[in-house]
Design a protein that fits this description.
This protein is of the alpha/beta class. The protein has helices at 2-11, 36-40, 43-46, 87-94, 109-117, 145-158, and strands at 24-29, 53-59, 72-74, 99-103, 123-126, 136-138.
């Protein structure tokens, strides 16, 4: 797994890191976070359209309950070399997201491998993550959703990735 991550890190194209935000993807550890509606609803704060928010999840072992979800990967989708064999995950990682958020805590060999393989232009992670993977590390707990949202919007605005919404002239809001 580490070799795959190292290879993708060395091949990363950083030329578009300053591109404005139009699309965002989230790679989420389902053991930590399952409020996907919260992530999909972030389009409002990010000033993008709902269809440009994508979420892909990782679950250690799929439960016995059948799932029709196609935006999920698990350990068995990686071979012994750390290469992924899940078509939906590969398509997700091949998308040129303007921003990708690794929504998990610390280091995680499978999720780190996915983040390193992503063709996203700008990557955001949480503290204690492998900082080589990310362009921005936010020092909040992933479980503190509201603080995360506030910090993400703040930093993406500072970096000119999103433009703050302008209130109409004469508005009392």
């Amino acid at each position: 797994m580490k070799k795959v991550t190292e290879r993708y890190l060395s091949e990363r194209d950083r030329s578009m890191v300053n591109a404005p935000l139009r699309t965002i993807g989230f790679i989420v550890d389902e053991m930590l976070f399952t409020d996907f509606d919260f992530l999909y609803d972030m389009y409002k704060e990010l000033n993008i359209v709902p269809k440009d928010v994508k979420v892909f999840t990782f679950i250690e072992v799929r439960k016995r309950i059948p799932s029709l979800r196609q935006n999920q990967v698990q350990c068995k989708d990686f071979n012994w070399k750390g290469e992924m064999h899940n078509q939906n995950a590969t398509e997700f990682l091949d998308r040129d997201f303007d921003v990708l958020v690794g929504y998990y805590e610390g280091k995680h060999e499978f999720l780190d491998a996915m983040v390193s393989q992503s063709r996203a232009k700008f990557k955001v992670g949480f503290s204690e993550a492998d900082d080589r993977l990310y362009d921005l590390i936010i020092s909040v707990k992933p479980t503190d959703k509201e603080l995360f949202k506030k910090e993400l919007v703040k930093y993406l605005t500072i970096l000119n990735k999103i433009q703050p919404t302008l209130k109409p002239v004469g508005s009392n809001e």
